[in-house]
Amino acid sequence: LSKHTFSKHSPEHSCSPPLSHIKPRKAIGSSSVDIGPFYGLPSKVKDLLRQLRGIETLYEWQHNCLTLECLQQRKNLIYSLPTSGGKTLVAEILILQELLCMQKDVLMILPYVAIVQEKVWGLSSFGIELGFLVEEYAGSKGRFPPIKRRCKKSLYIATIEKGHMLVNSLIETDRIGDLGLVVVDELHMLGEGSRGATLEMTLAKILYTSKSTHIVGMSATLNNVGDLQKFLRAEYYTKNFRPVELKEYIKIRDTIYEVDSKAENGFTFSRLLNFKYSSNLKKADPDHIIALVTEVIPKYSCLIFCPTKKNCENVASMVCKYLNKEFRSHREKEKEDLIKDLKNIGNGSICPVLKQTIPFGVAYHHSGLTNDERKSIEEAYSRGVLCLLACTATLAAGVNLPARRVILRAPYVATDFLKKNQYKQMIGRAGRAGIDNAGESILIVQEKDKHLVQDLVTSPLENCYSNLLPEFTKGMQNLLLSLVGLKIAVTQEEVYDFLCHTLLGVQQQLLSKEKSLSELVKDGLESLIEKGLLRVKTVEKDQNSKITLVITRLGKAAYKGSIDLSYCNLLYKELKKGLEGLVLESSFHLLYLATPYDMVSNCSPDWMIYLRQFNQLSAAEQTVADMVGVPESFIAKKASGQAIRKSVDSASVNRLYLTFILYNLLKETNIWSVSEKFNLSRGYVQNLLNSAASFASCVLHFCEELEEFWVYKALLTELTKHLTYCVKTELIPLMEVAGVLEARANQLYNAGYKTLAHLANANPETLVKTIEHLSRRQAKQIVSSAKMLLTEKAEALQEEVELLLKSLKKKNHEFKYLNVLAFSFVPCKCTVNIINI
Ligand SMILES: Nc1ncnc2c1ncn2[C@@H]1O[C@H](COP(=O)(O)OP(=O)(O)OP(=O)(O)O)[C@@H](O)[C@H]1O
Fold this sequence. Notes:
8-stranded mixed beta sheet, binds adenosine-5'-triphosphate, Helicase POLQ-like
């Protein structure tokens, strides 16, 4: 085995024990464990890590963590290390062990859609080389229950919400035991609002229903680990390791202080800022941002976190106004290309701020940009073409974009003072492993905030508390409903027993002072019965009667579709009304039904635009407005500023306005022109589109449970597809590939890559030559993702063939004849694809 150990030149070599000491984990009751030299895995894994990630050796802590006794015994584990500590690699090795050695499926839960897509990209190449499937569960993507695969194992990469739906579907079909491992990144999300509640429900259900599934959670920002350990019945591993040292500073006036937890104030004097400001510059830049930035750029990269989106744009513009001309000549051609690229994305238009800042290597990054724009800017920043990004806090929790220096413009996110967790996430972006030998953060502080900042830097991380309580989220109601629906618990006592095994159960005395857990359960169940989502049934058994809970049809539809319980009655009513007179002349009426309720409250219509949009509808479409309770006279009066006597439901009015935006998007497939038409940021418009795609798939699952809505199934399937991609139809097959957005799909299509099979069989080298601004790494990832998707589709068809053959075999037909028959079920195009693979 010694030739398979880490490189001899590795600094870690001396501290890593020979790998012969590492016991591969054995499947209980299984004799076919693939014992490999690299943590039980084939040495090909090690080669792939070197080739694809440039990782030669594991850090000492990674090795120690992977060889923990508790992992050998398949116990649950929480591990916590600072940001950039290399936590993900450990999780990935555990995932590969589960897929390849234990031959079990794995679920990886990540916090955001963009991170899920990035992970699908990153792991598809491993899947292709090592023979497992990578399936995306984000937005409107993902099948419930997942297809049962005969040969290959699946790695499901999911957002919190989709992960929950996936687990529900596996419990319902009695397949939860197929999941060998569940990995949760950013475990501290358990404490974050309704998403935290959903994550808690998911994990509690797995713990309660499957003895063979183990859970591994990781985070950089955990404090009350004891509670989490109790909840997850997990061991804990932690280490204060960071490959690149991070130095923390704060700046008050023109003085820089180093954060020092041992000092009385929390920080000590470091240096004075050495920069001469003219009086003009002093006025424009009172916080010395230019001084701080120019100490590092353009040679090194820098991120400035700003409290608001507008602030990001202002900071980027202001900095460029005062940067000297030499900044323009740094990587000039690549910056020109980036501008061209962004123009291409915007169908000829480019944001005027970006047009002004990019020549200096500077850009802003926030949710007002479209996904395509963000991706281009991220790529340019990663390659060093851009050296400075002014961004909002979302970047810290999103994609991996480290910097030599991180500046926090103010200790605020919007108007809220920074939380310690947020602060740690942001400063944690400083220092790139393998690139920088140091990383530093500078928090800009005004005199008035000095004391708050002292508390911030010296205080421990925030605790993570359960969000299941009804006063925090609707989590409790959702949980109770699905427990009964999935038959995990069907009596009040059983539901109570389940609740004792949640994080809320662990923290109940701390969190729920007024009501006991059993009172909370009783109240919650009664409220669900009142809403018509549950009902009580008395079962007679052995002369005893037992009261059990049964889910109603509406209740089942609500939890299957993950529909917010406060809207499910309304949704039912609106769908029912639609059955009486759905206007099918266009998608307008159907779109109204798929317009997400939760975006309605923060929408404020422009009445002139409203009226204009209404007037552009056909006569049949106009009747929809009336049907949903928004009469033409109301819109006209609002537009002309007249008083309204008869009240109209503002939720329906706002919802219809959002429908107008979506309708325009589907017709024009151009986010830029639609956002201009409605005077909204393109990021908001895109967010609405993504939410609508997701909600449409939820409404589809809702309808699947209710026979009377059979007609919606076909309609909503198509609508979901249109909303998900919202591009010219011919681009859809290319955009199904994870990480291929509209602009890239357009380039690929124009270069002749018109189908998924074309892309899967493409040569990455040729792609690099024919597609502008495509790096070798991206080309390889696109081809791997396309291959993965094609393999997955082909496998699904093969499963179907097998199933058909099996059922026919049972009837004792002649096998030869059946084989031919079964193949005739496979569409020609797909057969070609299978052969290609
Ligand atoms: N053993 C290693 N050798 C070299 N580079 C490594 C090693 N392990 C991880 N890295 C690299 O270090 C960088 C940071 O790692 P990773 O993203 O896993 O950190 P993390 O602890 O998950 O951070 P975060 O909390 O920010 O998500 C990545 O680019 C990763 O490829």
